[in-house]
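Intended use. Records such as the Cyanophycinase entry shown here are meant for training and evaluating sequence-to-structure methods. They are not intended to support clinical decisions.
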Amino acid sequence: MKKRISMLAAACLLASSFSIPAGAAGKEEIKGSLVIAGGSLGSSNKAVYDAFIDRAGGAGKAKIGIIPAASGKLKSSNEFKADLVKYGVNPANVEILPISDHDFSDTDFDEKQWTENVNKQETVNQIKELDAIWFVGGDQLKITSTLFNDKAKRTKALEAIWDIYEKGAVIGGTSAGAAIMSDVMITGGDSLGGLKGEFTTKDQSNPDKEYAPVYIEKGLGFFQHGIVDQHFDERARLGRLAAAAVKYETNKKTNYSYGIDEDTALIVDNKTKTAEIAGRGGVTVVDTSKAKPARKNLHPVNNVELSFLSPGDKIDLKTKAFTFRSDKLDTRGYEYYSFKPLDATGVLTSYGRLKPYLSYSLVDNSSTDSVKSYLYDSKGKGFALTFSKTDGTNGYWGYQDGQKDDYSIVKVKMDVSPVKVSFKKDDKAFKDYKPSNFTVPSKQDRGDIKGNLVIAGGALGSTNESVYKSFIDLANGKTDAKFGIIPAASGSLSSSNTFKKDLIRYGVKEENIEILPITVSNYKDTPDNDATQWEKIKNTDEFAAKVKNLDAIWFVGGDQTKITKALFNADQSESKALTAIWDIYKEGAVLGGTSAGAAIMSDVMLAGGGSLDTLAQGFTDTYDGMQQQEGGPGYLERGLGFFQYGIIDQHFDNKARLGRLIATAYEKGDRNQLSYGIDEDTAMVVRNAEKKIEVVGRAGVTVVDLSEVQTNPAAQSQYKNIQLSSLAEGDSVDLKTKEFSISEHKVSTTGYEYGDYQAAPHSGVLTPHGTLSKFISYNLVDNFGEKEVKSYAFNQGKGVELTFRKTEKTDGFWGYKDGGKDDYSFVNAVLDIQPVSVKVK
């Protein structure tokens, strides 16, 4: 994780000695195909593996060679071979080719002896028998230094690879194995370095810089249609790709440039000159054909058009036209959202990564035509990024993996301008802050609770087996367990029907599942539904008796205030239905819910508000639906109180809700309890009898501890010594001792930090590792070079400075999951929040 730096620095894109080799572009008769994966390819990513294997002739016939050169170990090659075998390839037909110019640390043999193999006929003969080649990840320079000779000419092995590729073989690779695919190979650097206009063609390192210039080398050139970059979303590489494309792409009218997300592949069919997207992320398409040269007050990365493609979308590489999945709907003229988004300024920005931010805040939002973000160093020197709708801008929306939002976007304009951002401590910044008038309900002594909870943070994927399995297994362990689904939060029955289908797919009998008539809404998709009649049902003895026969109840997502309205009486007393739910829960039933169905679980229910808005403005007594869901001051109501151990918030990572959870927990929480922010596609499993919480699912849970917090009565929203922990699947919390247990597959990072570099502040959508947990994990906890890192959130000249610190109690934990994906947890990082005044010039 060392940073590379050149001796050159300027405000515009600088010249370098790199040039595309003559004749590199233009092979017209390539019959083979490419599978270019953006890194961190999950072993369970069937779509990408199937694409590679099918194009190699199918599992029964494919003969595949793996080139290990990029890695320092043979482990990744052996694991990729094991994955191919898992997907049906004959192990005898998969060989790790002896191609490397360095030794591997995990073998007894000295692989440096393989150096001459690239010019041996034996190696050439091996390659010519293959239907496919795969390049594993690591350092792309190790691939090119192995397959080019000292004069940057192809070795015999590379000529053989080209030969089988031209005749029909598939070439694939991940991470470094993707970077080598284009003629212009981006070898290092970051977005801040790219926008500063700094490029280098030398491998130099300087961990004392907060940014790295873009390091350009010659790639292998298999992809003939533009520049490729990888780890794109996770490492926020738009700035470096756009800058490289402006400078180095020689065919801007013909070629796009492509940023491929992790666990995602761009699949290229050279015969039809088309490409499609497969996997779990997306591909950012950068069009620099309209970018203008740099001049005074004009940055060269301007008038750049961005498009975002999702799995199932396709590109015609000849016409540059896009085709979107047929089940997606246009958003233009039918925008779902109507709210005024805040600028994307740091870890407290809702939808703070690039694609979600532009999807929700700009393209599918009728209330704005442009949004802004920033990228700067710790001195505030950097850039403002303006993203604008154009006449050609459109969005395409659908669901994926159940009811997760899935967006594609075309033709958003990006302009970059240099700025200087300065921050000044301002204890009076939030003098108009309004405390909450919400009265915390008195604690009822419910006695011993034998039941359990499965509390999901929203956007629960239908394929998220660990969450579904937890919910089903906790239904008293019965094979004939009876399940009830409460649809009240939603405006239709579609989410309830989808959840029912998911339960059936995971083995629950259809006749044992019932959608319960608890709602305050008239559902358009159920003409017979009359909410006024369903309102009466909740207080009938007959319905209460039906509830008491259930072993599990699930609350679907939507608007949490509709759930509480449906189950409390007008005087806030419990309906008979709610009392019955409490009765079965106490006796051993499992209760679960997602999104709104998670929000209702604690006594203090977070029903609305944004993070910066709540820290700056405080709370409101009124609720206005979407506006309150997407931002504004915090809004609290009484929840159902099934979770007895603190306050819960949901959609925590995607909607960046740390600020509102802290403000709520400080005003209305019990300081002796922890508070919990649950990420999307993730659940907390609460085992009441054991007084234990376990994390399951694909993201994490942020735990907020205010037991040692210090505040300043003269400075609203100034906090010191907030303790933050981030837990992932397999981790747990002891609710009696508040101690954490971390999954055994992880090792402590303390004293063994992987990184050693200076980290720039989290400043917006182009900050690497953009979610809260990842920003702290990579840049602070697993980084020897920093004792603290910062982020800012601001609007109209006022905001907060967030300082995340390591102390003696801080520890990080790292392992791999689903193949070679980094899997982090950390405990007891410390957060200080300081109100500030902000100037941008």
